[in-house]
Amino acid sequence: MPDLILPAQPWLQESGPLVRARLLRERKKFCASVGRLAVRSLYAELTLYPKPGLVSLVDNGSHDDMTAETFLRSLFALRHYFIRITAAGIEAAPFSVLKQLGIEAEQRMLAATRGINTHRGAIFCLGLLCAAIGRCHAKLVPLSPEQIRLALLQQWGDALAAHTLPGNSDSHGVQVAARYTASGAREEAARGLPSVFEVALPILARTLASGRGWACARVDALFGLMAHISDTNVYYRGGSAGARTVRHEARRFLASGGTASPDWKARAVECHRLFVRHRLSPGGAADLLAASCLVHAVSHDHAFSVQNLHIL
Questions:
Q1: pLDDT for 85-95, tens place per residue?
Q2: Within-domain flag for 4
Q3: The CATH number of the domain where 221 resides is what?
Q4: Choice between 257 and 15, residue whose per-residue pLDDT is larger
Q5: Which residues contact 254 (CB under 8 A, 6 or more apart)?
Q6: What's the CA gap between 109 and 100, in Å, rounded?
Q7: For the CA atoms of the chain, what is the radius of gyration?
Q8: Model-level pTM?
């Protein structure tokens, strides 16, 4: 991890080396903790089942080119990236630095997976959230969903808006977004990840408050995201018809009560089989689910409370 920079407050510059060393240790410890939670959030997405069309520990979903083992290799390769981008957020690094860290992380992912794209979208959205979490930490504000989203928009909102302009990428996601007038990950990020903060997190909270547990909460949140977003992964594989199928099935599942329905698991498995038959894979929703798990974990972990922050 690159060296962290301490803020240039006069009193700190006048402090002794022991104080400065302690503050640096606290920052490194914080970044490592956020990095671990980011990896755990991706693991929480991977291990979820039933999960329509997506790779899990049970099967490969709609994919012939990747397995759960592929995702695990990718997770291992990304662990230092989340630490580094949290540190970059603490230091208020410009978006160009965050982008370069993401490019390097993608290269490590592809090397680990032998060229298979397992986590490109997650590198983007979870990386931005790690940076925003780092920014909140540096400003000593609570790590609440509201503050994390505000930090993301205040620090990098303009750059993210510029990042959505045509010609900035030839990725499949950008091409599909242009072809089908879908929003895509870039527009989602420029708006402060509304699908995370306005869709998935409230669903997680409601299901958990009902007592149905973490697995059910993730299932409900995933179906909520599938019903809500324009998933460029789905458009790329199934076109407009595939996107309509995903939204229809997700809304039907939720309208029947989601995981509150006694037969929810059978209906979710049926949806999974339907998506596999049509080769549909809502990977964008999966990335946003992992992002939501990260924000939920950080905002509910006592170790990240304001009382336990020991930096400026």
A1: 999 999 999 99
A2: no
A3: 1.10.4200.10
A4: 257
A5: 220, 223, 224, 227
A6: 14
A7: 20
A8: 0.88
